[in-house]
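Figure 2 data, in text form.
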Amino acid sequence: MKVDGSVSSFSACDAAASHGSAMSSIYCLFAGILDYPGPEISAQAHDLAARLAASSPGAAPTFEKFESGLQGMSLGELQELYTSTFDMRPDRTTNLGCHLFGEDVRRNLFMAQLKERMEAREIPIGHELPDHLSLVLRLLAEEKSEDEARTLIADCLVPAVTRILSTFEEGVGSNPYAQALQALLASLDADSVLRASSGSLNLAAG
């Protein structure tokens, strides 16, 4: 996990906004928010809150709680919270294949397919495994195929994020990262409905 390299990741979201859909930039920003926090996280959270208010109003109120939770926290405190929330809890790992397949060999095939798709789109993988939540969100942000995007949302992101959220026994209200995940899930659900509706309209037109 990295603390530096923030400028390039933040610029990538700006690029996604310029040539992609509104949801592309939203997913790119969520990828930064749900990665190990760096000094750019406050700016990312502010940008994402504004974009959610405009494009995904169902997710905006929950994400605003995450943004408010950052107030008064130093970067070191937030990094400690990230580590205790995800890295110290195997049941909350951000490697999505663990939630989808456990120790089954199918996870290896899943990661190999993700890695191939990320390399084709020039998404830097770094030291993470390709099923890391932030990397999968970046892949979704870059995905041009509607069918592939719908599959990634329905078969990967929604079930895995739902399982991670179920581990917050104390409830989502006491941990800012739970609120960020809840906002992400609301965005994914809304996007899935829109994509399905768009697909139905295209079939009817054809």
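Caption note: The chain has a mean pLDDT of 87.
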